[in-house]
Amino acid sequence: MFVRNAWYVAALDAELTDQLLPVKLLNERVVLYRQSNGEAVALEDACAHRKLPLSMGSIQGDHVMCGYHGLRYDRSGTCVHMPCADRIPKNARVRSYPVVSRYGLLWIWMGPAELADESQIFAVEHWGDPSWGVTRGDAMTVNCHYLYMTDNLLDPSHVAWVHVSTFGNAACESTPIDVHATDQGVIASRWMRDVEPAPLYVPFLGFKGNCDRLQHYEVRYPSHALIKAILVPAGAGGAQASQHAAAFVMDSYNFLTPIDAKHTRYFWFQMRNILPNDEGVSALMATGVRSAFEEDRVVLNAVQQGFDESQTPSIDIATDSASLRFRRRVQSLIAKENEPG
Questions:
Q1: pLDDT at residue 205 greater than cutoff 70
Q2: Cα–Cα distance between 327 and 333 in angstroms, integer?
Q3: Which residues is 232 bridged to in the sheet?
Q4: What is the pLDDT of residues 21-55, one digit of tens each?
Q5: Is 140 found in the same domain as 116?
Q6: How far is CA 54 from the centre of its chain?
Q7: Domain extent for 111
Q8: Which among 138, 218, 258, 333 could bridge 146 via Cys, Cβ 3.0 to 4.6 Å?
Q9: DSSP, res 262
Q10: Residues whose CB is less than 8 angstroms from the CB of residue 165 and which lie 6 or more positions away in sequence, other chains included
Q11: Same domain, yes or no, for 198 and 325?
């Protein structure tokens, strides 16, 4: 059902304070906590003894103590203290997960720990570049399967109907979409020429009148996306558009973490090429993006319900090309992970 040999976002870094934080990923329950040095730890959220969630216990120094019988575990998942016992059994341990803090997010590797490679974490272009601004993101839970969300993130056309007040305009209805696959994922993109700017972008543009607009929707395996928007004055679109003096560029990074078969945790933030230190711009953009994603959530929750309750089969249409290609590759990755040996 899920690709396990991958880095997923477990939580916003700021969510993990001085308390135990239970999360559920890929149908597995995990507890997060910080050691005294501030480093994050991720353990299976079930004591080896009677399976009480460790998240119902407490932090004792750099260890987690079970709230049922006082067993304590270190960051490796090894039980280091067991009351009323002369020795601790070798199998008194819980699973430990590799966890890395990056981009204000806590990333967790859900496959075998020995396969974890931090270089495989989604690379964010311009992170740390003082000439680029960061719109600090947020998170929400969407009540649908994560592949319905990757379908959505590979479909530039849906903004014409779902995001009329934010990302959409009439040009989104009919401009052809180019789809191609890479080793990392699938890209659906198009330039819309001499069109009215969509409402969300208008306050941030350094020019008046119509624009050329790039929609670049890229989803990488298993479930992370880069949505790039470039807006330039009409006639200036194309390969070098981002270098135009009046170009507005917004890179939206979207990270989907499956909770289970019908729920997904959605994390995001944006990078922009304008006014990097303007908190007012960051706040305005954050509000607009959140509003757009709430529009998506309403639709995707209803899509899941529709598939659960419908008595008739669904159909695919031309704009599903990218998502269908993505789904086929994801299924092949899952099948490969489950091959014997």
A1: yes
A2: 10
A3: 212
A4: 999 999 999 999 999 999 999 999 999 999 999 99
A5: no
A6: 26
A7: 7-120
A8: 258
A9: T
A10: 199, 291
A11: yes
